Amino acid sequence: MRTAGGAAAAVPLVGLRKEKRQTEEAVRRGESVLILGPAGSGKTALVRSIAASVSGTIYLPYRPVLHEMLGSMAAALVRSGHPRFARLVKDGHAPEEWANEQTSVHLRGLIWNGLEAKGCLIILDGINGASFPAYRFFQRVYHSPGTTMLAIARDVFQLGELRRLLWDPRRTIQMAPLAETEALTLFERAAERFGLREFDLAGFRPRVLESAKGNPGQIVEMCRMARDPQYRSGKHILFAPLRIDLMTRYLA
User: N or C: which terminal CB in the chain sees fewer CB atoms within 10 Å?
Assistant: First the structure.
């Protein structure tokens, strides 16, 4: 539910029981997996719900520039309290500032050596067009003892060169739409979360559920957007302009 951002994270996970079970079992076995699904299908919400119970997890939005990716990863390892990184940053200095002062070669070596000494759960979210150098870097991360990676992308074509690494269909989880009852439950929770009970939901509810087609991110985001006065007329929520604006964001 990346489009909904922090708003989505505020709504409890609904459905996705099969996908959650498969991911939890993979994490318990220490097996890295690839999670695929369209925007708003619940990929990020799913892995965050699992990572919340795994200490030392680092969450990394994918960055196309390798140096930026290395810096983000090193800073996340510092914040997680990883023993190989905990003393690298002086008191009073932000991890990101320290990482920006390092060279790519230095960061690459620190990360490889650190993870080979003590692995962790890594969430790599939003992979899009990975380069060959990125593949070579993550290849060693992927095979570091004790390290498990949950890689997230919309489809295999967005993996770029990481398709060389994340190729095994046995380690791929494809997100499925919510069932009708699950979608309705999520709508009601989102409506409560965003204070929509005072409005006429009789017309808004079925149009949201029909247009979202079981996509949890779209359900949550439409409820969040409905708080905006520009989509309201008295007690009624103006669905058509809200939906157009939502799809413009999803297709961007």
Answer: C
Pairing of strands 33-36, 58-61: unpaired
Give the integer Cα–Cα distance in Å for 225 and 36.
26
Domain boundaries, the chain: 17-174, 180-251
Contacts of 165 (CB under 8 A, 6+ apart): 135, 138, 139, 142
Q: Which residues of the chain have pLDDT under 70?
A: 1-10, 251-252
**Residue 33's pLDDT is what?**
96
What pLDDT, on the 0 to 100 scale, is given for residue 8?
52
Q: So what's the pLDDT on residue 1?
A: 39
Q: Which residue type occupies 40? A: G
Beta strands in the chain (DSSP E): 33-36, 58-61, 121-125, 148-153, 172-174, 232-233, 236-237
Contact status, residue 98 vs residue 75, Cβ threshold 8 Å:
yes
**Residue 62 identity:** Y
Q: Which CATH number fits domain 17-174: 3.40.30.10, 3.40.50.300, 3.90.700.10, 3.10.450.350?
A: 3.40.50.300
Return d(Cα 8, Cα 13) in angstroms, integer.
9
Please state, as a whole number, how many other Cβ atoms lie within 10 Å of the Cβ of residue 64: 13
Q: How far apart are CA 204 and CA 191, in angstroms?
A: 11
DSSP 1: -
pLDDT of residue 252: 60
34: β partners: 151, 172
Looking at residue 106, its amino acid is: H
Q: What is the pLDDT of residues 152-188, one digit of tens each?
A: 999 999 999 999 999 999 999 999 999 999 999 999 9
